Amino acid sequence: MFTIKSQAEIDKMRKSGEILYETLQIIKKNTVPGVTTRELNRIAEEHILKKNAIPSFKGYDVGIPGVPPFPASICASVNEEVVHGIPGLNMLKDGDIISIDVGVYYNGYHADAARTFAVGNISEDAKKLIDVTKQCFYEGLKQMVIGNHIRDISAEIQKCAENAGFSVVRDFVGHGIGAKMHEPPEIPNYVTKRRGIKLEKGMTIAVEPMINAGDYGVKVLDNNWTVVTIDGSLSAHYENTVAITDNGPLILTKF
User: Fold this and answer.
1) In Å, how far are 40, 85, 102, 106, 254 from 46, measured between CA atoms?
2) Is the dihedral of CA 248, 253, 254, 255 positive or negative?
């Protein structure tokens, strides 16, 4: 069952979100040709720890036999990698795109956000994918109001992506968030048969369109974490943590 947060709890999540936003800005500044994703991870972890916070993802255990805990503080997914890319020694090249997903735990509460960044000069097609993915989030945001249902969010995200000629990943979805990184409810980026729960004041959700330039099919690599497009097409990711309030949706991870 989803949890309703008090204003004090939302304020705590906003502080986690502020640290997370700072982290993403630092990563963006350092996302240049020649840098390794491991170095970006080091930079992110250093900033989070400096703020007396904890990287939510490092050591995250999904509880599935054979799947090791996630080994890094950020997910760094390059080009056809959709989500959960493990930082390593691979150097970014001019023309790459990279999706950075970060979680921050501070004072008892998590925040979660993701962005896709350009590495140097990228193609017009890649720019369009990044821009549309961000737009899809904001189309969904308009529906994050008291009394609407989860499916209202999903429908706008899917419509935005498909109208642009892109596809929506089905295998991974957004989620509730708070004292735990992943809480009910699930927030699909596509329409399902279920309306989903009605949005209420005090709900906090992480909404994260994952949009592919080609087909929506994905697969998990042998490291049991990194998800890639089956057809090798580019993928982009845009996520924020949002609180449902009397005055509409409040983004907790953008300042």
Assistant:
1) 10, 19, 13, 15, 20
2) positive
Length of the chain: 255
Is 45 known to sit in a ligand binding site? no
Could you tell me if residue 252 is inside a domain? no
Mean pLDDT across the chain: 98
Q: Residue 53: inside a domain, yes or no? A: yes
Distances from the Cα of 134 to the Cα of 15, 114, 128, 141, 168, angstroms:
23, 10, 10, 11, 13
Average pLDDT over residues 84-96: 98
Cα angle, residue 23 at apex, residues 207 and 88 outer, rounded to 5°: 90
| 149 assigned to a ligand binding site | no
pTM for the model stands at 0.97
Is 47 a known ligand-binding residue? no
Q: Known binder of ligand: residue 96?
A: no
239 is in an annotated binding site: yes
Q: Is residue 186 part of an annotated ligand binding site?
A: no
Q: What is the CATH number of the domain that holds 142?
A: 3.90.230.10
* Tally of structural domains, the chain: 1
